[in-house]
Design brief:
Layout (H helix, E strand, L loop, with lengths): L8 E8 L4 E3 L9 H12 L7 E7 H6 L9 E6 L14 E3 L2 H13 L3 E6 L3 H7 L5 E11 L7 E2 L9 E5 L3 E3 L3 E9 L3
Length: 190
């Protein structure tokens, strides 16, 4: 493989419009069923039904998933140096020690017609690195506005989006949980 043999990818993230908060105590700080359904559709849908999409995540994001073995109907790659993740199953995730090595693996899976698209889905450290990676195509963001400020302990570096172009933006949608959200797609201009 050459140095440039890594997958092109999209970031998917939901963050607080006030400060970029994405998590609290290892969990999502809000529950938006419509957004979870959108996430599932984007990361699961493939044009070729014999292929799957790839989701790349950090160990803490993986540990927060409610599903044993990772997200169903997707190839899960977890960034970790640990040989065992604690949620192993026969169809458990693949592991890689770095984002770059995970993207090289993803490239191999796409080139061999096993996978179709690659998505980086968190957490904070993975997003920070992914935003600077030359393989980044776009950021598909759910921007959330809450009525009261939440105490987050994980953040998305929203200031990094300033160098990207807004390619699409939905209207605000009000949720039953005293919040509103909108979808924004940022395209990488590199």
């Amino acid at each position: 493989m050459t140095v440039d043999a890594f997958a092109k990818f999209d970031i998917i993230v939901a963050y607080d419009a006030h400060d970029g908060g994405i998590g609290r105590a290892g969990e999502l700080p809000w529950s938006i069923p419509q957004d979870l359904a959108r996430f599932r559709h984007i990361t699961s849908f493939t044009k070729n039904k014999t292929k799957k999409n790839i989701v790349i995540m950090g160990k803490k994001t993986y540990a927060s998933l409610p599903f044993s073995g990772g997200l169903p109907r997707r190839i899960n790659i977890v960034l970790t140096h640990a040989p065992h993740l604690g949620k192993e199953s026969n169809n458990g995730p693949m592991t890689c020690p770095s984002l770059h090595s995970a993207l090289m693996l993803a490239h191999h899976l796409v080139e061999n017609n096993i996978a179709e698209n690659t998505f980086v889905i968190g957490g904070q450290c993975v997003y920070e690195e992914a935003l600077h990676h030359p393989g980044l195509k776009s950021v598909r963001a759910t921007v959330v506005q809450t009525l009261q400020r939440e105490p987050y302990d994980a953040f998305f570096p929203v200031h990094q989006l300033e160098r990207m172009q807004i390619d699409g933006m939905s209207d605000w949608v009000r949720d039953n949980n005293d919040l509103q959200f909108r979808y924004v797609t940022f395209t990488n201009n590199k």
